[in-house]
Every structure is written in C-alpha cells, then in structure tokens.
Write a structure and sequence with these properties.
Elements lengths: L1 H16 L10 E4 L5 E4 L15 H15 L2 E3 L1 H9 L8 E5 L11 H7 L3 E5 L2 H7 L8 E4 L7 H17 L1
Parallel strand pairs: 4-5
Antiparallel strand pairs: 1-2, 3-6, 4-6
Helix pairs in contact: 2-5
Length: 170
C-alpha cells in the first residue's frame, strides 16, 4: 500500500511539471535584418492577414474591444462556429481568427465555413492580443463581431469593407 501512494504522488508531480501548451509563448522568427522586428509564426492558411495592410490589426482589435463593451461579440470556436453555421450572423458581421493556433485542425474549418455563408473574416497575429481585446485574461482563438456602439459605427463599416475587399482578392 505504501508504494502505491508514493507512485501516485510521483506521477502527479510529473504531470504538474509538464507545461501546458496554452501557457507556452508562441515561437518567434526574425523578420528581415533592417527592422529586426519579431513576428509570431502564423498558420499557413491565414489569408487575409491583418498585418498585410497598414494599421489594420490595431483597428480590428479596437473594434473587438468596442464590441465587447457593447456586448455584440461572441468568442470561442464552438460558439462562433454555431452562429455562422446556423446563419445567425448579421450581414455585416466580422469573424476574427488568431493566426498562432496550434494545432491547426482546431480552426481550419472556419475560413471555408465563412466563405460558404458569406461572412467576412480576417486573421490577426496573436490569440493573446485577441483575448486581451475581449477584456479577458485567457487567449482567444476566434471572435465574431456583429456590431459596435453607434459612435464607432463608421470605423466598423470601413474595416468591414476593407476586409471584404481583401477577402475577394484571396
């Protein structure tokens, strides 16, 4: 009996020492020598990508923040998939996906689903930043924004049009 308890404690301590995949920071790569800027690794299907256009990442994350305060935002793969699949998404809804998701299979169905249902979507570089924009301490892999408060509506419409335009090119 005494050995069994010791073995269980050893197994438990080994499990606790192993870091969780969510807690590990994303690997970084260098982007050119002149800037020395670091960029998070992104999934290969991340098109349209918000970093491809000037200041679009900041605008998208600020829209997510406005939608969070206005309670017109839903986060998480399961809930976003349900809204898009059941066609409950509004005409000008915007799905925001994080490009540093591992494993890719978790989120790989979203671009195809959004294209089939004619919902605009865009990829942002970091799930940590996306989680922070939703005013949460947890990283978030996907968010759907279905509107913002009226004082920010013009910015929202501009971003949605730009994302739609980028999506048609891809």
């Amino acid at each position: 009996m005494g050995k069994d308890k010791k073995e269980k404690k050893e197994k438990k301590s080994k499990k606790e020492k192993r870091p969780r995949e969510e807690d590990e920071p994303a690997k970084k790569i260098q982007k050119g020598e002149e800037g020395g800027e670091t960029v998070r690794i992104k999934v290969p299907i991340a098109v349209p990508f918000s970093n491809d256009h000037e200041n679009l990442t900041k605008k998208v994350l600020s829209i997510v923040k406005y939608a969070t305060t206005g309670k017109t935002m839903v986060r998480g793969i399961k809930d976003v998939t349900k809204i898009v699949r059941k066609e409950k998404a509004k005409k000008d809804a915007l799905v925001v996906l994080a490009a540093d998701i591992s494993p890719l299979d978790v989120i790989s169905h979203m671009p195809v689903l959004c294209q089939d249902k004619n919902v605009n979507y865009i990829w942002v570089p970091s799930r940590t930043d996306l989680g922070a924009a939703t005013l949460s301490k947890r990283p978030t892999s996907s968010v759907i924004v279905q509107g913002v408060p009226s004082d920010k509506a013009d910015v929202y419409q501009k971003v949605v049009k730009l994302v739609a335009k980028m999506g048609k090119k891809a």
